[in-house]
Amino acid sequence: MPSGPRPVDVPRLRIALKVYRVSALITGVFLLLLVVMMVFRWGFLVDIELGGPYGFLALTPKEQITGINLSTVILIVHGWLYVLYLACDFVLWRLARFSFGRFLFIALGGVVPFLSFYFEFQVPPYIAARIRATTGPEPTDAAPAAEEVSA
């Protein structure tokens, strides 16, 4: 398969990149919440309870939770957000036509803490370079028109 996006895919690729950046940010935040939750669950043997008898938010042993188990909610929400993150990564892979190894490397962003934040800033320049290689540099407003220079 040839490397680089097809010119017809460039508009969709730019939209997919914006959606990817948002999903990387949200998935990264929930991954950090998940890490905190796991430290509480396995380190201190408590879960995060919402709206229970011990207050609005409380650290409560799992057996004593009567409100909403926020730890379970964080687990479920992060799982679904990671699926969305993988879908965005897949769309970028299909439209930008980069290697499958890079696809797998970017997929780690939803599993390794802080990696999605790194990819949120590293993937857009990479995709922009691939777009430039396909379509050429975008025109800028900084360059004066030929009529303005001669006048």
UniProtKB/TrEMBL annotation:
Occurrences of domain DUF3817 (ranges): 17-122
Ranges annotated as spanning the membrane: 22-44, 64-88, 100-119
Top-level taxon in the UniProt lineage: Bacteria
InterPro entries, alphabetized: DUF3817_TM (IPR023845)
Pfam (any one): DUF3817
Keyword presence, Secreted: no
Entry GO terms, CC: plasma membrane
Bilayer disposition of the protein: Multi-pass membrane protein
Keywords: Cell membrane, Membrane, Transmembrane, Transmembrane helix
Subcellular localization, as worded in the UniProt entry: Cell membrane
Protein name per the record: DUF3817 domain-containing protein
Native organism: Protaetiibacter intestinalis
